[in-house]
Prior knowledge:
The chain is an all-alpha fold. It has one domain (3-120). Helix content is 78%, strand content 0%. Helix 1 packs antiparallel against helix 4, helix 2 packs antiparallel against helix 3 and helix 3 runs antiparallel to helix 4. The radius of gyration is 16 Å and the shape is elongated.
Amino acid sequence: MNSRLLWSILVLVLYITTSLTLASYPKSDNSISFDKPMEVALNIGTQIIFLLPPIILACFNHIAVRIIAVIYLGLILISVFFLTIILAIASPYVLSVIFGVLTGIATIVTIVLTFTTYRKAL
């Protein structure tokens, strides 16, 4: 449970770090930017709400809950994958692409840990 919880929190931190990196280098007026702090706060709040279920589900050890967590993390992985492709094409900044790739790797590790980690009840 501890490793799944820590990796889920790491995915959240990397997801937010990627967004903050993108806010540091806005590409246009419609991009997220630190010039509009309310949009940055809403973006981070939305990401926390979006990534809260895997963190909560990591606290439980039942097989059904773990399957739901893996499906949800798979959806997150798909969104991170497409985000990284868009960043690689549209953004000239390598740092945001690196954070996108790290987020994808952390999500894959979380999925593998959720599949493989099992502790029998006493």
